[in-house]
Write a structure and sequence with these properties.
The protein is of the alpha/beta class. It contains 29 helices and 8 strands. The strands form 2 sheets. It has a 6-stranded mixed sheet. Helix 5 packs across helix 11. The longest helix has 32 residues. The N terminus is likely disordered.
Length: 661
């Protein structure tokens, strides 16, 4: 996708675009009215200060955190149209500040970890509405069944389902608005909550038994803001900003409607209002509408989950391209740009979600665990955003107060959410820590491996390669022999490649090819360059691919050859006389080297842990040939020892043998 089409994506505004945005972007943040007010009130008796204070906190959180930070400021930080913490990291990486990888890995892992709790909490909150009609209904099997269907349909892509998503979310937000307006008409004093004094009063007095820590419940209203930024590439900045006006209005109207209803029941607790399902979201519905309301809520919750699953696929795809994650199989179920399916991640998320449902059982228990990981992600985004603004040469007197305000807000949320640790927050943090461990290990191992890869100048080997190519005393290995290389300079190659050609088993070929893949810090680009090193003997092809492009070297290399033949730069007819006469195309053979840790390596304790963990994870990751999209019938994989810190030269003394008469 060219930069011009990205410009179009972000400046294009259409009714269809706005509708699609509703279906894709707002699932997570849009379903928060299902559980936020319930979480804020908890077991406290309903009072004017508690309700107005809670609503004031929600209103200002949505205004400062979601609207100002994400919709207005962060959406401007797009990487050729794409958003999300890894896209932001790819942008600030240009500053050459090494440690920025830390917030990127922590943020990405935290976002993924919270992706495991969002589908269960949304679906459970919606399904629990059934208790209004049947108080003892077992909701766990229903929730797991819905999740199973949701994760099973991922492999078919969301193109078909997407057409249903957008109108459904339009119905959902319209329902939120109407329900809110009906309740507010009975009590307009609820609008006093716009005054931030009520938020301040709630947090600094003992109105609620949670005190300042009530912010942990308030934070649930903005958890989807990070996902909103991640999905920017699907809809465009302008569509998100305009549709957010409608979405925020619908959310505020519904929250205020719930508040108006609760103000007329002061002195009672939620369980006194409704024993079977004490959720103000369902209490504001007229009895006749409740069945339809539950169905709409459940569908909206499924869509919310879908948005997060798609976001997780995108996140892991980017992590692989940035060397943060082992190579895993990626499928492209539809021709929609950027839409992908990662089977291993899909089922990992599914079993994670089922584990959450079985462990917590109720949505109210999940609320205790929800939000702790995502606030870490938001803090990391703020840190990266700071460097993005510096990179964009924004004046320091604008950056400093802005970043300071957001770090204060977010660290306050973090402090309030820390109390959730013992109530289940440890679950998402534990998952995030495992993900941080995987990403850090993979990245460090790749770095260590690169540091100990010996690079040599191709010039030294030009003569011998040209002579080997015509040495008839060595049986021909292939017409075209292709090696993948990590050497970034065109005049260099790994020593192990030369060792494979000249020593491991001398490999005679008519033409040698070295292929290098450059992953760019922009999402969509497919370019290549051919460098003839020895005319008609040795060529190097450099591919320049965006970090969201699939690596299909087999197909791409065929296109390069086709283009070179068309331009008369290459004759790919077989060099065997009988085949040449009959215009048969020459054979292509790819040689890949698979490293294993040599026993001669003298590792430090830290390197030992990292490299052993790396080789363990490598067993479960995609093989090099599949990772590069090569046809296994034309690939030879060679085992190559990886020697880190070669041992000192062993000083040995020869003993002369005595002759025996």
């Amino acid at each position: 996708m060219s930069s011009h089409s990205h410009q179009n994506l972000h400046s294009k505004l259409s009714a269809a675009g706005l509708l699609i945005t509703l279906g894709i972007i707002y699932g997570d943040i849009g379903t928060s009215p299902l559980y936020v007010m319930k979480a804020i009130i908890g077991d406290s008796p309903i009072s004017k200060d508690l309700i107005l204070g809670g609503l004031s906190c929600i209103f200002w959180t949505l205004t400062l955190q979601t609207t100002l930070k994400y919709v207005i400021i962060t959406l401007s930080a797009d990487n050729h149209g794409e958003g999300g913490i890894f896209a932001l990291y790819a942008l600030v990486k240009r500053t050459k500040i090494q440690w920025l990888i830390v917030p990127a890995i922590i943020g990405g892992s935290a976002l993924l970890a919270d992706g495991i709790i969002t589908p269960p909490i949304s679906v459970s909150s919606a399904v629990e509405g059934l208790r209004i009609f049947k108080p003892d209904i077992p909701t766990i099997p229903i929730v797991i069944a819905i999740l199973f269907v949701l994760f099973t349909i991922q492999q078919f892509g969301t193109k078909l389902v997407g057409k249903f998503f957008a109108p459904m979310m339009l119905i959902w937000f319209s329902m939120l608005s109407v329900l809110g307006i009906i309740q507010m008409a009975t009590n307009l004093s609820v609008f006093n909550a716009i005054n931030p004094y009520y938020a301040y009063h709630l947090l600094t007095s003992n109105v609620s038994d949670q005190g300042f820590f009530i912010l942990g419940a308030v934070f649930l209203c903005t958890t989807g803001a990070e996902a909103l930024y991640s999905d920017m590439g699907h809809c465009g900045r302008k569509n998100i900003r305009i549709s957010w006006i409608f979405v925020k209005s619908a959310l505020v109207l519904n929250y205020f409607g719930q508040g108006a209803y609760l103000l007329s029941h002061q002195g009672k607790t939620l369980t006194e209002l409704a024993k079977s399902n004490p959720n103000p979201f369902y209490l504001i519905m007229p009895d006749w509408f409740q069945p339809a309301g539950i169905v709409i809520s459940t569908l909206a919750a499924v869509i919310a989950s879908q948005a997060l699953i798609s976001g997780s696929f995108t996140l892991i795809n980017e992590a692989m391209r940035l060397n943060f994650w082992p190579k895993v199989k990626i499928k492209f179920p539809t021709d929609v740009k950027g839409q992908l399916y990662i089977p291993s991640l899909n089922w990992m998320l599914f079993f994670g979600c089922v584990g959450i449902v079985i462990y917590f059982r109720e949505s109210s228990n999940m609320e205790h665990a929800y939000g702790l990981a995502i606030i870490l992600c938001m803090i990391m985004t703020t840190i990266l955003l700071n460097f993005y603004l510096i990179m964009k040469r924004v004046k320091w007197y604008f950056i400093a107060p802005l970043i300071l305000i957001y770090l204060t807000i977010e660290f306050s949320f973090l402090a309030a959410n820390i109390t959730k640790f013992k109530d289940g927050g440890f679950v998402t943090l534990f998952i995030a820590l495992i993900l941080i461990g995987i990403m850090s290990t993979w990245f460090l191992a790749k770095k260590i491996s690169k540091n100990y890869t010996k690079i040599v100048k191709i010039d030294t080997y030009k003569k011998v390669l040209a002579e080997l190519s015509v040495d008839l005393s060595i049986p021909k290995y292939a017409t075209h022999l292709v090696y993948m290389t990590n050497a970034t300079r065109t005049d260099e190659i790994e020593e192990k490649v030369m060792y494979s050609i000249l020593q491991k088993r001398p490999k005679r070929a008519d033409i040698y090819w070295f292929i290098h893949v450059n992953i760019l810090s922009e999402p969509y680009k497919k370019e290549y360059r051919v460098t003839p090193i020895v005319e008609d003997d040795l060529y190097r092809v450099d591919f320049y691919l965006g970090f969201r492009e699939p690596t299909k070297i087999n197909l791409m290399f065929k296109e390069v050859i086709k283009d070179m033949v068309k331009k008369g730069e290459m004759d790919i007819t077989s060099r065997y006389e009988s085949l040449n006469k009959n215009n048969i195309i020459g054979d292509f053979k790819f040689v890949l080297s698979e490293k294993f840790l040599s026993n001669d390596s003298d590792l430090t304790f830290f390197e030992n842990i990292v490299m052993n963990a790396y080789f363990f994870m490598k067993k479960f990751s995609l093989s090099e040939e599949k990772g590069f999209g090569l046809d296994s019938s034309s690939v030879k994989v060679e085992q190559f020892p990886m020697v880190l810190h070669p041992p000192e030269i062993i000083d040995m003394k020869r003993i002369e043998c005595t002759t025996i008469n």
